[in-house]
Every structure is written in C-alpha cells, then in structure tokens.
Amino acid sequence: MGIRKIETGITGLDIMLQGGFPEGRMILIMGGPGTGKTIFCSQFLHHGATEQGEKSVYISLDETKPHFLEEMLTFGWDFQELEQANLFTFIDASDIRRISEKAEVGRLHVGGTELARARLIDNIFTIADGSGSSSIEKFIGDIGATRVVLDSISGLLFRFPEAWKKRKAILDVMEALSVSGATCLITSEAASIGEERQVQPEEYLSNGAILLQTLRTGDRAVRILKMRGTEIDSTPRPYQIGERGIELHSDQSIFET
What we know:
This protein is α/β, with parallel strands linked by helices. The protein has one domain: Rossmann fold, CATH 3.40.50.300. The chain contains 9 helices and 13 strands. The chain has a 9-stranded mixed sheet, with helices on both faces. Strands 1-2 form a two-stranded antiparallel ribbon. Strands 6-7 form a two-stranded antiparallel ribbon. A hairpin with a 5-residue loop joins strand 10 (208-214) and strand 11. It starts with a strand and ends in a 9-residue tail after the last strand.
C-alpha cells in the first residue's frame, strides 16, 4: 500500500508532487521576503477546510490574528468563518520571541538559549492558548487537526547562533510537531538564493523542502528540493500571486542563468 497523499490546494503543485504532500510529513517552505510563504501555507489550510472538511492549526510567531485574518480576506479566504465552524484555530505565539534572556517558563528558570531543552514548542502552546495543555500533541489531538502550519521558525532560531544549539532547537520543534501525526508546514527565511545558496539545518531535518524565489527578472519560481515518500518534479516552475492566491504553472519551466 502506497503512502497516502493530501491535496495542497495550490494549482500545479499537486502535479509536481504526483498527487500532493505525503500525509503526516514535516515540510519546510523556504523563501525570502515577499515570496508568498504565508500565502502558500494559508492556501494549504484553507483548501483542507473548505474542500476536505479537515481541521487545521496556524501557529504564528510573526503576526497577530487580526492582521492575518484581514490579509487572507484579500484572497477570499474567510478564516474567521472557518474558526466559527471549528475548522480552524489560530495560535498567536509571537510573544515567545520576546522572552528575555533569563525567563521563567512554567516552573523552569531558563536562559534564552536553553528554551529548546525546556520543550519550547510545548510552552508556546501553554502560553499562547492558555488552556493548560501539557503538550502540543495533546492540543492538536484534542482539536483533531490534520493540517498544521508554523510560521516562521526563523523567529526562534536567532536565539541560537551556535550551529549545534540551532540544530537542537529545530529538532525539538520538529519532533514535537511530528508526534501529532498531522501534515505540518514550517516556514523559514532563505539565507541566500541561487545554486550557491547556503543550505540550512532545517532542510536536513525536514521530510520535504520547497523553495520559493523571486528571480533577478522579477519573476517568481518554485522548486521542490526534496520530498521523502514520493517522486517529484524538481524543475523550477513559475508561479504568480493572484487574487485567489498562488497559481503555479507546472507545464512551464524557468531556466536560471
């Protein structure tokens, strides 16, 4: 029996992925500012809710809920309506970025660079949701979410300048999310672009990685760098951000010089 796929909701991407994302995997969505990472992930959640009746969770480390809801409405995606229908949950975890270098998280006194060892992702949920949930897997399990987005992991990693500490923090986050069994998208700022770009630690640790780029010509391109459990089309393909979100042209190619 093959790996079950779930539709992404992004025109053309399912073709490149031979049917969609492998279910239950951890997928990294990378790109520079303005490439549409948040739009990409939100489109994935909205499609799951409106077309498949799937519940989802959006964990924001960058923007507030009102700003998110307003921005997504410009694409015709009413996440407030989905929330009222119990199909969507927004977690505003932006305050976790502002925890001081010495902070008290629960009963633990931790330093800024020790947050990963203090089960960082669990504390995000305890602080942001206020429900007293002891773990992310319990939180997501109670909701019944099958699609989860964390936007963005870059907001946490600035605390870990040393490579081994950064890797440990990423592992903590990804392991906690993977236990939930949901298909998870994690956004990350691309350190550089092009063939000589710097490969980031989270790329090695994720099950899949997709790169969104704005080329020198001003055109946009998406490239699937890896996706365990499925054959992929790794050719850079053009995409646009239109009135209904991201439109990807899987029958066209972009050749970078």
